[in-house]
Design a protein that fits this description.
The chain has about 300 residues and is an alpha+beta fold. It is built from 5 helices and 14 strands. The strands form 3 sheets. Strands 1, 5, 6, 9, 12 and 14 form a 6-stranded antiparallel β-sheet that branches. Strands 4, 7, 8, 10, 11 and 13 form a 6-stranded antiparallel β-sheet that branches. Strands 2-3 form a two-stranded antiparallel sheet.
Length: about 300
Amino acid sequence: MIRRLCILLIFLSIFSSGSFGAIKRKLIDFNTYDEKMKAQFPTPEESYITNIEGYPRLVVGYKEYMLENWDVELGESSADLKNKILSYCKSVKSQRFGNTLGVRIHFPKWNNNSYALIKPAFQIKVYDTNGQFINAENGVIPNVSEVKSVSIWVNGRNFNYGVAIRLRDRFENVHEYFMGWLYFDGWRKLTFINPNFTENVTAKKLKREPLYPYDIPYFVFDSIVIYRPSDQIGGDFVTYIASMEIEYTPYFVDDENDIRDEQVWGIITKRLQKRQEVEEQRLLENIYLYQQEKKRTAEEKK
């Protein structure tokens, strides 16, 4: 009897550990990023404003999401015209990783703490028009409870600059994970490890929160941050990023899908539609200025 009880306890321990153990997923693989984004917007190539039933509407194209249109947003003390023109992104081929995100940043040459945000021109979409997750493992990680680690494959050029990854949660809170320093040459995988994470389920403070119609917890990529300390050389800086990964425990494990709540009630979809209306209005106000700024910057580079 005692032997049977021991076997049962071991089985339950293994089952619990497997159910709540951390899983690893790609956050973004830049070798496939452009193609996945393009598949969401087969037409048109570029965004444009049209008139539908007497109201201006934005038709979103895929080009704005491509790597060549990612932004380098310099800190306020560094964002003069020259530095902005000489700071940009492009897709760069690597023999090891395929397509990578190439980044050029022009920091001030004087001694001051500087930073730059590397990010898409527009926020990566989390939901489609039906309220379902999109861009999973292409900037979006659904069903996240606790982060165990975040990692990045990055190419260093012996600059003693820091690099961090920023993620946004369902409440629009931004979480920053400092990955380390780029004081090396060639490719290296840098990893942030959560010091408070434990695999021991009994040691966790499990908190039950309402699920539907609230959003399932998720993380979406916000930006990569490059920190230049004041005592380090300024001017041009170049790096390449191949991919990012995240290791986490899922928010809920039981996903039998007996009833698909959103198909029945459509609450998230309606909430999403209201959010999209606000975002479209904001984009309507900015898209023309954004495209003109891109053209002006491209002409200045020539």
